[in-house]
Amino acid sequence: MDELLREVVLPRLGNRWLDDLGDAALLPRPAGEIAFTTDGFVVQPLFFPGGDIGRLAVCGTVNDLAVMGADPLWLSLGMVLEEGLLIETLARILDSAAAAAAEAGVAVVTGDTKVVAKGQADGLYLTTAGIGALRADRPRGVQEIRPGDALLLSGTVADHGLSVMLQRTPGVASALESDVAPLGGLVRALLEAVTGDVLFLRDPTRGGLAGVAADLAARTGLRLTLFEPAIPVRREVRYAADLLGLDPLSVANEGKVVAVVRPDAANRALAALRAHPFGRAASLAGRFGAERDGLCELETFSGGRRIVSKPYGEDLPRIC
Amino acid sequence: MDELLREVVLPRLGNRWLDDLGDAALLPRPAGEIAFTTDGFVVQPLFFPGGDIGRLAVCGTVNDLAVMGADPLWLSLGMVLEEGLLIETLARILDSAAAAAAEAGVAVVTGDTKVVAKGQADGLYLTTAGIGALRADRPRGVQEIRPGDALLLSGTVADHGLSVMLQRTPGVASALESDVAPLGGLVRALLEAVTGDVLFLRDPTRGGLAGVAADLAARTGLRLTLFEPAIPVRREVRYAADLLGLDPLSVANEGKVVAVVRPDAANRALAALRAHPFGRAASLAGRFGAERDGLCELETFSGGRRIVSKPYGEDLPRIC
């Protein structure tokens, strides 16, 4: 275990905290309130176009902090390894986690490794936790959302979920890429561009855009209308979703953000999102209406309307 | 998943942070520097005399914070559940985790649950991370240890490891109890009793007392002598260790602390430990000598001497 740490983990993820190998990392006092989150990762396969479980584990936790309006600072990484996992496989995953951490500007400061016998895990499982510094300009909260407020989407939907699902579909060779990415920079750009006018942020992972939108309608008690033509879906993603019988709106993303902003701020917010590499296809994808029925509806391409419900159960097991 | 959260998890672990079910818990600014740690738990069986994986997961992370000289505050809990795990089993484990958290004075403020198919985990795996507030009177560091300094042990060794191992030994019925316990209170009592004279603290988990002692000798470069008659071992633990061919000094504990203190402070430190329910059998178990060979030796009952080495490999897989 010592050898694994010193020869495989530390050369990749090492920093002045992790290198200590103490029982805990000793960190400076944060500037204000903090955000704390955790996420487990059991994705199968471990590698998929556009990412792998290492990148996913770092981005997932970074994004949970970012959408709470916190600047991500420090991560922990717990690994459960199945006996027989190749060191080269682990090394590739850690290389990828390290690259994602560098991209996100965070450090993995503490970790743990457990090994279980063959057949007691599926390659490896990762659990990250993260600490972020809450920003003064963080979202004001769902309770502030009013009729007329705009729902923005930072880009195409369903890339991650379909990328992973296609890897598991026999007879299909696909290079459809996951969107897995750290969103701290994009969120910061948005918060700085329209300070005070961001009411809510969420990364639409499990349950997809539909899950977030239906939940927002229910929590605000307002009608939320999504505009299908304003929800970008890659052509190959739409094709893959048809093939698998899935609704792209309900499929997980790992590099997108949903934002609710004041109507006046929508254009400036979109400009800020579009100026960032992860927000080029940002759109005004929905709007809260005056009807107090807590429903989410979709205005379709053809001008029809249908109710958008919270996806029931898990369409897609082990996509993250 | 929502149902599991609302009906099984929140009624047991809920608090104002966890109940929010946000992407991250928003926590007040800590009073000073912080400690951050993580640990994974894959113990088998999930229940053993004296504890279970839930109590272990809370205590393990609380203790890692405590021995760094931090007051444990907030925990995260990540769960990987194997499909088919009984809800009653999960509920018992969460009850136990909640009781341990209450005993330790910490709150589980954020969590995550993933489900994998039958045969892709072994019941459940837990990963906790924790944040603590660093105390001003925290241990001064290994670099401060000098010849003459005393090594204190808070009680009997090997209870946890042997309790779990015996549960896995066919044909043996044992009620040998694990010592799994949260050590924040015991450590605080010690630090307050001999402020400035505590140089090092560690909970001797994997590798046991031998692992910690051999590591201390190597890191200080000093001879460290352990006194076998001063290392309390329960009679039934000694018997079980003989049966399994294990050295109790190398077996994991989950409710003990090893402390290095200045010679003058040793008696006051022992009195403070013994006044606490988890430190009643505390002893002066070793002393650093002037020989600069970085070796750890054991003075045996019979007056002999033997070298104590860092246990090689894992005697005991999946004991935590």
Give a description of the structure.
Two copies of one chain form a homodimer. Chain A is an alpha+beta fold. Chain A folds into two domains: 2-134, PurM-like, N-terminal domain (60s Ribosomal Protein L30, Chain: A, 2-Layer Sandwich); 142-307, PurM-like C-terminal domain (Phosphoribosyl-aminoimidazole Synthetase, Chain A, domain 2), CATH 3.90.650. Chain A is 30% helix and 25% strand. Chain A has eight helices and 14 strands. Chain A has helices at 2-13, 53-67, 87-104, 159-167, 184-193, 208-220, 235-244, 266-274, and strands spanning 25-27, 34-41, 47-48, 51-52, 70-82, 107-116, 124-134, 150-153, 198-202, 224-227, 258-261, 283-288, 296-299, 305-307. Chain A has a seven-stranded mixed beta sheet. In chain A, strands 2-7-5-6 form a four-stranded mixed beta sheet, with helices on one face. In chain A, strands 3-4 form a two-stranded antiparallel ribbon. In chain A, α3 (87-104) links the parallel β5 and β6. In chain A, α1 (2-13) runs parallel beside α3 (87-104), α2 (53-67) packs parallel to α3 (87-104) and α5 runs antiparallel to α8 (266-274). The first copy, chain A, is globular. Chain A starts with a helix and ends in a 13-residue tail after the last strand. Chains A and B meet through β1, β2, α2, β5 and β6 of A and β1, β2, α2, β5 and β6 of B.
List keywords for this structure.
homodimer, 320 residues, alpha+beta, 60s Ribosomal Protein L30, Chain: A, Phosphoribosyl-aminoimidazole Synthetase, Chain A, domain 2, 2 domains, 7-stranded mixed sheet, 4-stranded mixed sheet, 14 strands, 25% strand, globular
